[in-house]
Amino acid sequence: MYPGMIAWWKRAQRRAAFGAAAGCGRSGGGPGWAHAGGEHDGELGGWSFGVRRPLRFLAERLGLSDKQVAELARLMDDLKTERAQAAVDNRRVTAAFADALAGDTFDEARVAEAAAARVRTAERLREAVVKTLARTHALLDPEQRSRLAYLIRTGAITL
User: Fold this and answer.
1) 83 and 45 in contact (C-beta within 8 Å)?
2) Is residue 45 predicted with pLDDT exceeding 60?
3) Who's near 3: CB < 8 A, 6+ residues apart?
4) 36, 79, 113, 151: which sits with the fewest CB atoms below 10 Å from its CB?
5) Which pLDDT band, with edges at 50, 70 and 90, does 131 fall under?
6) Is residue 1 very low, low, confident or very high in pLDDT (cuts 50, 70, 90)?
7) Residue 13's pLDDT is what?
8) How far is 19 from 25, CA to CA, in rounded Å?
9) 159: Cβ–Cβ under 8 A, 6 or more apart, which residues?
10) Is the pLDDT at 32 greater than 50, yes or no?
């Protein structure tokens, strides 16, 4: 066997042994879920839920019913949409900052408006996260809430 294929082959064996979840695990391999990187982290928050693997992870770990899974998928999708809008807004603000610096004169009013837009975006995202957490709290039973809190505390899920 070509030496460059050995790592790929071992990963394929792990995936076969642990199922599809092994590919989305922590850096040590094995089943589990780690936070997503990129634009979801940082100043805009970090509840790094997509819709597929994290939902399966939570359904398994929390023992969710089909009705709970459907509602949680809707909540996560709404939050994902809000985060995507925040990312777009952040790119606009960054472009406005760059344009202000590139001009012949510094347009302080434009920079102030862009900074205010960044604050509004963060506030809108904060409200969406709070609303999603409140609805998630109402959706889960006490034992499921304590398991979710444990996953958040240990860093398996980031908010």
Assistant:
1) yes
2) no
3) none
4) 113
5) very high
6) low
7) 80
8) 11
9) 45, 46, 47, 129, 133, 152
10) no
